[in-house]
Input
Amino acid sequence: MVKVSIMYPHTPGLTFDIDYYLQTHMPMSIDRLSAHPGFHGVSVERGVAAPQSGLPPVYVALCHFLFTSADDFVAAFMPHAAALQADIPNYTAIAPVVQFSTVEIAQAR
Amino acid sequence: MVKVSIMYPHTPGLTFDIDYYLQTHMPMSIDRLSAHPGFHGVSVERGVAAPQSGLPPVYVALCHFLFTSADDFVAAFMPHAAALQADIPNYTAIAPVVQFSTVEIAQAR
Output
């Protein structure tokens, strides 16, 4: 299983419209990417201050898509890349960091 | 639900023993932290090159713990902090990045 993480670094001076991201951008992204048979799940997260230091989070927002393979993600994403990327300026000017990973251990209570 | 992400940046010149991390360190961490009633799950991941650019991953390894609250994570972690942190030099000299987030959308196929 492959996880594709799209993470927006906390950047002083740049804003991030978390409401638009959670209520408009991510539902649109999930609707499009989840149509691919390689889609297995998604998590969308809001960065919060560290509980002890109170320091701001490294990332203000993150999403993680689970796909069977990186090729499946690319195949799911490419037909919608232009539309999804064109929507980014509607919520931020922060350039996202993209991480590809393989899931080695997964456990839930 | 809170996610605590511990992420090791790819750092030229510094090694990361992924086998030790996956086979020894993370099982020990999961064994200890999952005993807390606030534990809900964990994912452990290996960073891989981006499929199209071939660039190395931003993070060589990541783990994500799900807990009911940040306070629950702190309560679960603190009794084991010294032992777990003392084990880090056994697999890397890379300083991890720690991110606290709230899970806003979670969906699985």
